Amino acid sequence: MTAEVRRGQEAAGASADRTGHRAAVIGSPVAHSLSPVLHRAAYADLGLSTWSYTARLLAPDQLADLLAQVAAPARGGPVWEGLSVTMPHKQAVTGLLDAVDPLARAVGAVNTVVAQRHGGGRALLTGLNTDVAGIVGALREVLAHQGTVPGPRAVVLGSGATASSALAALTELGVTNVLVAARRHAGPGRAAAAAHRMGLGIRTLTWSPGDPASDAAVAHELAAADLVVSTLSAHAADTLGAPLARALGGRPRPGALLDVVYAPWPTALAATWQAGGGVVAPGWLMLLHQAAPQVQLMTGRTPRLGPMRAALLHALGEGRGAEVSAGAAGPDAQAVAGPPGVG
Questions:
Q1: What pTM was computed for the model?
Q2: Known catalytic residues?
Q3: Three-state secondary-structure class, residue 128
């Protein structure tokens, strides 16, 4: 279906150039989103001067109305081409679309909506998931910097939509032993349900943040993992700091951590991991790698990562690029260079 979506966008693009094209990221909250920075940088590099991309604050009860606007026939103004979807809409949007890509359906989360137009009628709205590609791309980049290949053991912190995408990404990387640590595991929108749909066997650990024994158990699992993906919001893993530092002290070389947070940075989890000698990928790296395929799906053109990365780092107030730099704990403590912190 992905190839079909791209071909449809390429065909529709030529006829709409006279009126312009529009896309947006939707969520609540959404003011913090850096998706506009990435998409606009890609448009500029590709010479797509008639394309615009904005951020739209959208409450759950407004979702259906906006989708109707996106699908409506073009009437002389800029043509809706697609949406980037962030929380809390990634799961709710799935049931409001004309079609959902098999990967997005298996994961149970859509982060990309593409409006496929054929002629002047209503567009068909297709949902896809590029979060999986974002996680895979970010982890591959940090592992390449580290000079290692993915090991067989991983831990995912959290059990929501992004955690479900992480399961698919880890499977693509060849990881065979996955533990999901979270407060809750039951429910159709949880990672355990996504694992069942994908035919994956995972282990689960119920975690009570702030409980010393529970934090210690999770920290032990993290320290033993080859890969860790934290899908938690900022500060949600802060109680793991001290027990994780102790657990990492007994390991000569910790694995790689992807923390999906990009502001404020570093999180307590990322700082502890780096101080213990592990390599860290910040959330902006996942954002970069998921945005590139979004641009391709919406425009039918393949963007270059370089200009998008440069624009993103500039927006974050970080001009050093994405090289690996030595961490505070010495030459073995490495992290993909991230922003010093933005509010």
A1: 0.88
A2: 90
A3: strand
Residues shown for the chain: 343
Percent helix, percent strand, percent coil in the chain, to nearest 5:
45, 20, 35
For the domain covering 132-285+327-336, report its CATH number. Answer: 3.40.50.720
Query: In the chain, at which residue ranges do the beta strands (DSSP E only) sit?
Result: 21-27, 51-57, 79-85, 99-100, 112-116, 124-128, 153-157, 177-182, 203-206, 227-230, 256-259, 279-281, 324-327, 330-336
CATH fold of 2-129+290-315: Rossmann fold (3.40.50)
Q: Using one digit for the tens of pLDDT, what is the confidence trace for 229-269? A: 999 999 999 999 999 999 999 777 889 999 999 988 999 99
Domain ranges of the chain: 2-129+290-315, 132-285+327-336
Separation CA 136–CA 281 (nearest Å) = 11
Grouping H, G, I as helix, E, B as strand and the rest as coil, residue 167 is: helix
Residue 331's SS3 state is strand
Give me the pLDDT at residue 243, please. Answer: 98
How many of the other CB atoms lie within 10 Å of CB of 14?
A: 9
pLDDT in tens, 292-307: 999 999 999 999 999 9
